[in-house]
Amino acid sequence: MSDQDFKHQFSPRTTNILLGASVVILLGTLLVRFLTSAPQEYVLIAMGVGVFLFLLVAFDQPAEMK
């Protein structure tokens, strides 16, 4: 296996932690956005972090074997 064929993937535990954190962040920011008068800029930044973590997990999944 050459260096180009090697792809590091997160362990299942790390994947679950990242996925859980992203869901908690996204749900929390939705609640803050609609239930409080917090500055929208900070809410959007937090949403961006949640989406980033979610995409990090999504793109780390192994490709389907054919």
Structure write-up:
The chain is mainly α and about 70 residues long. Helix content is about 65%, strand content about 0%. The model has no long low-confidence stretch (mean pLDDT about 85). It has two helices and no strands. It has helices at about 10-35, 40-60.
Helical content band: 55-70%
Largest sheet: none
Distance, first to last CA: 19 Å
> Could you spell the SSE succession in H and E letters?
HH
Radius of gyration, whole Å: 16 Å
DSSP strand tally: 0
User: Into which percentage range does the β-strand content fall?
Assistant: under 5%
Give a quick summary of the entry:
65% of the residues lie in helices and 0% in strands. The chain has 66 residues and is mainly α.
What are the salient characteristics of this protein?
66 residues; mainly alpha
Write the layout of secondary structure elements.
Blueprint (H helix, E strand, L loop, with lengths): L11 H24 L4 H19 L8
